[in-house]
Design a protein that fits this description.
The complex is a heterodimer of chains A (111) and B (300).
Chain A (H helix, E strand, L loop, with lengths): L1 H17 L4 E8 L2 E8 L9 E5 L5 E6 L5 E5 L9 E6 L4 E6 L1 H7 L3
Antiparallel strand pairs in A: 1-2, 2-5, 3-4, 3-6, 6-7
Chain B lengths: L1 H23 L2 E4 L2 H11 L4 E3 L15 H8 L3 E4 L18 E3 L10 E8 L5 E7 L7 H17 L5 H25 L7 E4 L5 H6 L3 E4 L10 H14 L3 E4 L5 H8 L4 E4 L12 H21 L1
Parallel strand pairs in B: 1-2, 1-3, 3-4, 7-8, 7-9, 9-10
Antiparallel strand pairs in B: 5-6
Helix pairs in contact in B: 2-4, 2-5, 4-5, 5-9
The chains are: A alpha+beta (111), B alpha/beta (300).
């Protein structure tokens, strides 16, 4: 009985360990604001992380911290977004990015 | 003077018509060279097919620029490979109506790759599983991808249906013939263990019942001592005598491998162009090299 229980525990632990959890970054544009969401692919919200905003030449324009719910808001008023933006998120263990094109920004404001 | 004026007007009219026609050609973007070459065959001269990944860059891990994504967003058709190929597609907004996943009809035939267990941060040991994505190395699956491309072009009126269908039929006939040839060529290689420097050949191995175990070496780089030790241990354990490279190795790498009594075979997996060699030429040459190496190792 104990052996079967131990086997079950091992099986469950193995399943947990094998769960993939790459970081998923998503950004959507709503006129003057880009909303960034970062979560792990197992569904967990990325509660901590640094967000970097880069221009088309990959020059850093801004950095900010993720909120506890894994989101961040980027105000487009304060940065030059004419050539599009790279948004990078780094949680320390995982990192990923999202690309926002000038068309994405134009579409995001209904034009 | 009047004649000159008339000639100028005619020249201008011809130029403008040609320019307009050139601009009207639909643009198709492919995420790898295999899909690009299929799309070029199927489209003929009715569309421009773009493959934006720079030479020498692995399209699986290409990080596009913003202007690349703008070009892709404005394409009439975006050909995805599926099975997790091209990680950038999950990091951008793409117009759904113009996306074609060329492997959606064969998803049940995907091969799950071994997970890579590693540890970093405070997350403990964990792994990232994936799918083998070099589907086109099995000619039967390549035919399915070609069908998906042709259907997408027809459904979106990007090329005349009859022409597309004729070209697709020709591709299917070629792939079927290739499949038979490879089956014959590789028939005696099925009891040989091959080692590949990178996990690219899962669908090829499955199609021709070959045993190919894989390493994770960087293409074009000379393996270091620890990689050579791992290769030595693997070949001893598996009894492998043949090493498959995805790109021509450096002479130092080739010599190091030869000193372990391993035969080197180069098999470009066609995610990137293989010089000016076509898919059929590359596949035939690779199969012939593998068969020759297998025969040699059998005689030793």
């Amino acid at each position: 009985m104990m052996r079967a229980f131990a086997f079950l525990i091992c099986l469950l632990a193995g399943t947990f360990v094998a769960t993939a959890h790459g970081l998923v970054v998503f950004a959507s544009v709503d006129c003057n604001v880009i909303t960034v969401e970062a979560k792990f692919s197992n569904g967990n919200v990325a509660q901590k992380g640094e967000l970097r905003v880069l221009d088309a030449e990959r020059e850093k324009l801004a950095t900010m911290a993720l909120e506890q719910d894994g989101t961040a808001l980027i105000s487009l008023d304060s940065i030059d977004h004419s050539e599009g933006l790279y948004i990078e998120v780094d949680t320390g263990g995982h990192d990923n990015y999202w690309i926002v094109t000038p068309d994405d920004i134009a579409r995001g404001c209904g034009s | 003077m009047q004649v000159m004026k008339r000639l100028s007007l005619i020249f201008l009219a011809v130029f403008m018509t040609t320019s307009a026609l050139a601009q009207e050609r639909p643009r198709i973007v492919a995420v790898n060279h295999a899909l690009q070459s299929m799309a070029e065959r199927i489209a003929g001269d009715t569309a421009d097919v773009l493959f934006l990944v720079p030479e020498g860059v692995d399209p699986s891990f290409w990080r596009p620029s913003i202007s690349d994504i703008s070009t892709i967003q404005s394409a009439d058709l975006i050909l995805l490979n599926g099975a997790g190929f091209a990680t950038w597609i999950d990091r951008v907004s793409l117009p759904r109506a113009r996306i074609v996943n060329t492997s959606s009809a064969i998803a049940e035939r995907f091969i799950t790759t071994e997970s890579i267990t590693h540890s970093h941060g405070d997350g403990g040991e964990h792994s990232h599983e994936g799918l083998a994505s070099y589907l086109w190395l099995d000619p039967e699956l390549a035919a399915e991808q070609a069908t998906a491309i042709a259907n997408a072009m027809i459904n979106r009126d990007l090329a005349p249906e009859a022409e597309v269908q004729d070209r697709l039929d020709a591709i299917h006939a070629e792939l079927s013939e290739l499949d038979s040839e490879l089956r014959d060529t590789l028939a005696d290689a099925q009891d040989i263990v091959f080692v590949a420097t990178h996990p690219r050949y899962q669908y090829f191995a499955q199609a021709y019942e070959l045993e190919i175990v894989s390493l994770e070496w960087e293409a074009g780089a000379t393996p270091d001592d620890s990689q050579m030790s791992a290769l030595s241990a693997l070949t001893q354990k598996q009894g492998a005598k043949i090493l498959i490279w995805e790109a021509e190795p450096t002479s130092a790498a080739k010599e190091a491998v030869a000193s372990m009594e391993l035969e080197s075979v180069t098999f470009p997996p066609l995610a990137m162009p293989n010089g000016d060699k076509t898919y059929l030429e590359t596949m035939r040459a690779a199969a012939a090299s593998l068969a020759a190496a297998a025969m040699k190792s059998d005689m030793e």
